[in-house]
Amino acid sequence: MNNIPEIKIGVVAVSRDCFPMTLSENRRKALVAAYEKKYGDIYECPTCVENELHMRKALSEVRAAGCDALVVYLGNFGPETSETLLAKEFGGPVMFVAAAEETQEDLIHGRGDAYCGMLNASYNLKLRDIRVYIPEYPVGTAEECADMIHEFLPVARVAVALKNLKIISFGPRPQDFLACNAPIKRLYDLGVEIEENSELDLFESFKKHENDERIPDVVKDMEADLGEGNKKPEVLTRLAQYELTLLDWVEAHRGSRAYVAIAGKCWPAFQTQFGFVPCYVNGRLTAKGIPVSCEVDIYGALSEYIGTVISQDTVTLLDINNTVPADMYEASIKDKWEYTHKDTFMGFHCGNTASGKLVSCEMKYQLIMTRTLPEESTQGTLEGDIIPGKITFFRLQSTADSKLRAYVAEGEVLPVATRSFGGIGVFAIPEMGRFYRHVLVEKNFPHHGAVAFGHYGKAIFNVFRYLGVGDIGFNQPKGMLYPSENPFA
Predict the structure, then answer these.
(1) Of 424, 263, 277, 262, nearest to 357 (Cα)?
(2) Residue 115's pLDDT is what?
(3) Left, alpha or beta for 434 (phi > 0: left; psi -120 to 50: alpha)?
(4) Which residues are registered as beta bridge partners of 170?
(5) For 30-144, where are the E strands, in sequence order?
(6) How far apart are CA 378 and CA 370, in angstroms?
(7) Hey, what's the torsion of the CAs at 99, 104, 105, 109, to 10 degrees?
(8) pLDDT tens digits for range 407-441
(9) CA torsion 74→153→389→341, rounded to 10°?
């Protein structure tokens, strides 16, 4: 995937002038050694910051080293003014972490008091309105702090990515899909650019790609990807033409931005004019690291992109779609897992999940559309059951009054045959029924959710918190009531 940033982290130690600077310097060396042993390269800034002049010197050093993210390391109490100005002037994602005391044998000249210094640092950061990443428990040994820095890496990667992201949309949204509508103001607040286009612009570009000399090579790649699932070979040429249209549009319109995601149009006029549905191409581009959401879902595309950056893997966008029939639950789930019936549901979309995330795949037509349209104009869905395993369901959304809201929940796709159509899976999330009612329904989230294939809840939650999302819902365990939940129910 070449649509996500590589991050170089720098470590700057800070020291209060009434503490020995060597204490911070030696602890910094131990931290860097612990990180490199376990995780690899990290830049050790040679200047230890004790005052504002040191801060400027350290800043020039980390910039010269090409650091994208910064760790401010309180090796001792730390200079609250200089260390917070360092975070402010760096301009990229910053983490604060503090050193624990090492041994009872050295609690006079070797005591750093960084536990106390972190309090002053957090107070000064708030005074200056500087947002930084602070771990759950931000004080530790060299090895523990190295682990904290590694957990900061996906947060830093997303922060850098969003400041360099453009979402390209082709609209307008389909009728009765206001749920996919949301104010774009908060995109700008996150640093994301948005380019909104008409589907007529897209259609014009598509027509210009007719007989493109690259089409046969793309068709061959699609044939290899589909394998025995290539059941609609007659549509591949048009799908290849569309894929090239999108990729060329990305290159021509990314402008000053390094990274791109797409919110695409897929109905109702799309299939009658283009002569196919774009689902398979959407999945192929998503697997390349360029998420393409359905139904002009701009915040769905943003959520997918965040999941791509965190997991560094293919994601998908699904409807939180339908209940698992009672007889399916009784026959295939009840005695095999500890999930209740209400913990389960089916995640579905027409056919946009990439082939690598399906147990087996087959090119088909969009069944729902064929109820009113000829089948040949609705070909292009990639159908199959989604691979079983751990998943994280999540979404970042702007509310109607332009506030950021999010949710994240970990669960799994069960190895249960869906007996249905589209790209679909039987999902299980602990306490899903309560989560559905008191987060998804009550807080007005749309039906689309992003899916990352693995448990990334901690990283996604950290990212949402770092981005300033004040309301982050999750699937609360039994005994932990939602604010609106009836305690007598």
Answers:
(1) 424
(2) 95
(3) alpha
(4) 197
(5) 43-44, 69-74, 94-99, 139-140
(6) 7
(7) 50
(8) 999 999 999 999 999 999 999 999 999 999 999 99
(9) 60
